[in-house]
Input
Amino acid sequence: MSLCYILDGYNITAQIPSLSLKNLRGSREGLVRLIDLYHPEGSERNEVIVVFDGKPGMIGRDEGRGTKVLFSENESADDKIRNLVENSRRKKEIVVVTDDRDLALSIKLLGASALPVKDFLSKVKREDPEQELPKAGRQKREDEKKISKTLEYKITDELEKIWLKK
Output
């Protein structure tokens, strides 16, 4: 039984630092190249469809190779993905890759399954360890301040006294 992976394109590119810094066309092409090169969908028998917001012709590639690219045109990419799932006769074989909670819930209600982006990308076997992919769980930024819970509560109390006139 082969699976059909439907990818929420911009939801994924926004989470890959090396792709999110590019222009939209560059990020789209980079995602498709990553999928074609590393096959995170597993078996070559599995189908991969990437859905982006926008109009057809917004990506420069041959449509005959591996990954299929769809554009939402007159609807959102989320609605396009929902319609693909809803109109499919093999809903149980569809895996939608997204971190959009509303989309994930709605496709689960339709009978398909959802896979978080980090789980899908964790299947990428990278030859280049410098390639930046999202890490599991919440990422901490380097410039994020670290304070103790005790200090956090003291600050909150002090601000409440000032702002709320306690």
Remarks:
- The first helix runs from residue 9 to 13.
- Helices lie at 9-13, 17-20, 24-38, 77-86, 101-110, 117-121, 149-163.
